[in-house]
From TrEMBL:
<keyword id="KW-0456">Lyase</keyword>
<dbReference type="Pfam" id="PF01212">
    <property type="entry name" value="Beta_elim_lyase"/>
</dbReference>
<dbReference type="GO" id="GO:0008732">
    <property type="term" value="F:L-allo-threonine aldolase activity"/>
</dbReference>
<dbReference type="InterPro" id="IPR015422">
    <property type="entry name" value="PyrdxlP-dep_Trfase_small"/>
</dbReference>
<protein>
    <recommendedName>
        <fullName>L-threonine aldolase</fullName>
        <ecNumber>4.1.2.48</ecNumber>
    </recommendedName>
</protein>
<dbReference type="InterPro" id="IPR015424">
    <property type="entry name" value="PyrdxlP-dep_Trfase"/>
</dbReference>
<dbReference type="InterPro" id="IPR015421">
    <property type="entry name" value="PyrdxlP-dep_Trfase_major"/>
</dbReference>
<feature type="domain" description="Aromatic amino acid beta-eliminating lyase/threonine aldolase">
    <location>
        <begin position="2"/>
        <end position="280"/>
    </location>
</feature>
<keyword id="KW-0663">Pyridoxal phosphate</keyword>
<comment type="similarity">
    <text>Belongs to the threonine aldolase family.</text>
</comment>
<dbReference type="InterPro" id="IPR001597">
    <property type="entry name" value="ArAA_b-elim_lyase/Thr_aldolase"/>
</dbReference>
<dbReference type="GO" id="GO:0006567">
    <property type="term" value="P:L-threonine catabolic process"/>
</dbReference>
<comment type="subunit">
    <text>Homotetramer.</text>
</comment>
<comment type="function">
    <text>Catalyzes the cleavage of L-allo-threonine and L-threonine to glycine and acetaldehyde.</text>
</comment>
<dbReference type="InterPro" id="IPR026273">
    <property type="entry name" value="Low_specificity_L-TA_bact"/>
</dbReference>
Length: 353
């Protein structure tokens, strides 16, 4: 009953098999191997255009390096004030932009409000020497609250940013989960909606340690290879990243994995809504679920061995009013979550209610 994170599980068997296959023989180093070429070709198919794709080992590197490519040291990155890049990456975006400032923007359910974005941008006119210069907008898909931007919402925010000359980044750590929940194409949820650079996550959804930074405008990636090398994210045995990404994408495997994780979250949601005293912040669309548990239920679940995080408010104040006897928790499912895990969790909660 491990619902702490989709990082808690290993890689999918298909990805592991691809790694074992890539381990045999020799291939050119530093990402010039056949596996990485294959992965880039598959990304071109997925996004329906020629992309510039770079493979790195962590989501933090993916986000921070991507922002470093589109934001100068004197620039500002606008993001939701609860965004992962603002609260959970130990200043990496600031470091890899060489000092750019992150500016928090309001919005309920972890989603930037268009009016709030317009309002805050009005306070950062370009050319004012005393201020950081507006440079980029970063959107999280899914958000830290587990909510999703629909394609129209992404397009509206991107248009506001582009009108002010900002580049638009998407933190897609759970891009696959969002995509299958919305039911659109990868291109529609990214470049066709105005995204300029995408941090395309695979680690949370079946890879061992593999993310891609994807530029839809090659000019924005002009110096990116050097940034990756300087940051220590050009692997000598780059085929180990290429092999993971190729296996992840081939035959829509990444979408199948995400559908399974989302299905388990829906089953967990359905079960918990029947437990007296348990309240959900909202019905999950992806693989994250946020719930207010009565303290006796929380204690019983932990005693039964369940793992999950107490979450605190973190922007949920307008979605869920907590009583003194409530604990707000985050529950995350993965492709490896079984139906038995869900049933055991719900049964333990029901037994304590």
């Amino acid at each position: 009953m491990d619902f702490a994170s989709d990082n808690a599980v290993g890689a999918s068997p298909r990805v592991l098999e691809a790694l074992l296959a890539a381990n045999d023989g020799a291939e050119p180093a530093y990402g010039h191997d056949c596996y990485s070429h294959r992965a880039r070709a598959l990304l071109n198919e997925v996004f329906e255009c020629e992309v510039s794709a770079y493979f790195v080992a962590t989501g933090t590197a993916s986000n921070a390096l991507a922002l470093g490519a589109i934001t100068p040291p004197w620039g500002a990155v606008f993001c939701h004030h609860q965004a992962h890049i603002a609260n959970d990456e130990c200043g990496a975006p600031e470091m890899f932009t060489a000092g750019a400032k992150l500016i928090g923007v309001d919005g309920v359910q972890g989603k930037i409000d268009p009016a709030a974005l317009r309002d805050i941008l009005s306070g950062f006119p370009a050319g004012t020497v005393r201020q950081v210069q507006p440079a980029s907008l970063s959107l999280s898909q899914a958000t830290e609250c587990g909510t999703l931007y629909d394609c129209g919402e992404i397009a509206e925010l991107a248009a506001i940013a582009h009108d002010r000359g900002l580049a638009v980044h998407m933190d897609g750590a759970r891009f696959a989960n969002a995509l299958v929940a919305i039911g659109c194409t990868a291109a529609e949820m990214s470049r066709k909606a105005g995204i300029d650079v995408l941090s395309f996550g695979a680690t949370k959804n079946g890879a061992l340690a593999c993310e891609a930074v994807i530029f839809f405008d090659e000019a924005k990636a002009a110096a990116f290879a050097y940034q990756c090398k300087r940051a220590g994210h050009v692997l000598s045995k780059g085929r180990m990243l290429g092999a993971q990404m190729a296996a992840y994408l081939a035959g829509g495997h990444w979408l199948d994995l995400a559908r399974l994780a989302n299905r388990r979250a829906a089953e967990l949601s359905d079960g918990l809504t029947k437990v007296p005293g348990v309240r959900l912040a909202f019905e999950p669309r992806g693989n994250q679920l946020f719930a207010a548990l009565p303290r006796p239920v929380d204690a019983a679940l932990r005693k039964a061995g369940a793992r999950y995080y107490e979450w605190g408010d973190r922007g949920f104040g307008r979605m869920l009013t907590l009583g003194t006897n409530d604990v707000l928790v985050r529950l995350v499912t993965s492709f490896a979550t079984s139906a038995d895990d869900v049933r055991a969790f719900v049964s333990a909660a029901r037994g304590a209610a």
